Amino acid sequence: MNRVVPGFVRVFCVALLSLLISCTAASAQAASTQTAPAQTAPTQTAPAQTVSGSPDFADTAKDRNVATSASALAINLADGASTTAARSGVAINNSTNTITITAPGTYALRGALSNGQVIVDVNGDLFLVLNGVSITSRTGAALAIFGSAKKVISLAAATANTLTDAASYSSFYQDDEPNAALFAKNDLTINGTGSLTVKGNYNNGIASKDELKIMSGVITVTAAGAALKGNDALIIRGGTITTNSTGDGLHSDVAILISGGTLSIATDDDGIHADESVQIEGGAINISKSKEGIEAAQVNISGGVIGIVSSDDGINAADGSGGNFPGMGGRAAGGRGGRAPNNAPAAPGLPPVSGAGTPATAIALTISGGIITVNSGGDGLDSNGSLFISGGTIIVHGPSNSGDSALDADGRIQISGGSLLAAGASRMAQAPDQSSSQPSITISFRTLRAAGSLISIKDSTGKTLAEYRALKSFQSLVVSLPALSTGASYSIYVDNVSAGTVRLSNMVTTVSL
After folding, report:
1. Residue 427's Cα: distance from chain center in Å?
2. How close are the terminal C-alpha atoms of the chain, in Å?
3. What is the per-residue burial (b if ≥16 Cβ within 10 Å, else e) of 291-314?
4. Helices (H) then strands (E): counts for the chain
5. Over the stretch 62-99, which tens digit does the pLDDT of each residue have?
6. Of 19, 30, 20, 443, residue with least CA distance to 9
7. Cross-strand partners of 289
8. CA angle, 364 as apex, 361 and 366 as ends, to 5°?
9. Considering only 273-277, 347-351, 376-380, 509-513, which range has the smallest mean pLDDT?
10. Cα diameter, the chain
């Protein structure tokens, strides 16, 4: 596995007659660690919204209801001495430090258990306020939630809460074995402004068998498996989320939707992985370490500030059926501990795909907005179907090895808008195709260009339209900008020395310099 050169690139856009790009990597070149610097974009908390095309993704009043301890029944945790104000619906076993909630309502937990568990077994609405809680279990999940209807956990303002599970589980609940420090059998929403630290020693950090939704809060997760997992859907609207995991940072067997929040993800596996679809509409996402940064059969990015460091592909659209699509690394459909989805609902705005054996025509990487920086050891932008770019600002520091490329698609690479600078090795390099409606230049350099090289593209008046400073050695560069026009000529400079002039005779122009 190739080690990736660290760091993001500072990307900024300049308004001339159209969107121009300048890319500088001085800070990244000086970096000495493998961790990319955090995004500087402010935390974004998305307002309540309904997502068209998938009613299950719609926010409800329950999702937005931040319960407080003032209106809750108190449960005070203490080793061998837990107490409650509830007259019924709460069973406390102080010999095992097990608290079981069995009645709907609003409950507030406070205090600490050094070896205990809280179990919720309620068919109906339940709001659980974490009001300064520390729960460590040596037998299973720290907090396990069962019963029908969505459950909501509110993080009380100005409180710190910690959940830690056992490295191996010896306790089982009903017909489901929890597989996370914070486990929910059905839909789970987390909101509030307090903090929650979760340590998943057994497998996952926070997991729901159905939908996991995070509205807000300061959430830090370390996990032996996936940090955050929603089997049917994982939805992030806001919050400040930091994950460090052996498994995927964010995982769903079906769909992931991110519309806000600040996410910092480090993982030995995929940063963001869904078997069916990933849709990113907003937020600041920093994937500082990953095997593949973002992966799903359909990846749709329409907004947000995204930085990716990956040892393999940066963004990969692939369905993972068997070994037919090497970009998935042979992962079986369903992911770790998952199922092979069959005609499951896709993320909003994306058609359903069929799981195992998904036809290539249903696989797509679509970028219509956002600011995206990829630093990849494998392909930068990779699709086992097609790659569509209609907007956004995209910088790709692709592979130096000749077995991969900055852009890779089994189908078409179509550009109709946005700004793209993508560099990588030349042997496998791919250019946009003639179906594109925005001009592009693909430059194949005769000699390998060293890391730190500055490539400048200037128009006939001498104005700089774009600059690219390389993080790694490269020999191919793809440039597409709204400022480019067919029939016009552009000068290419390498470290401020002219390398030649290119005339755009077609919508797609390929040259060797």
Report:
1. 30
2. 31
3. bbbbbbbbbbbbbbbbbbbbbbbb
4. 2, 43
5. 999 999 999 899 999 999 999 999 999 999 999 999 99
6. 30
7. 266
8. 140
9. 347-351
10. 83
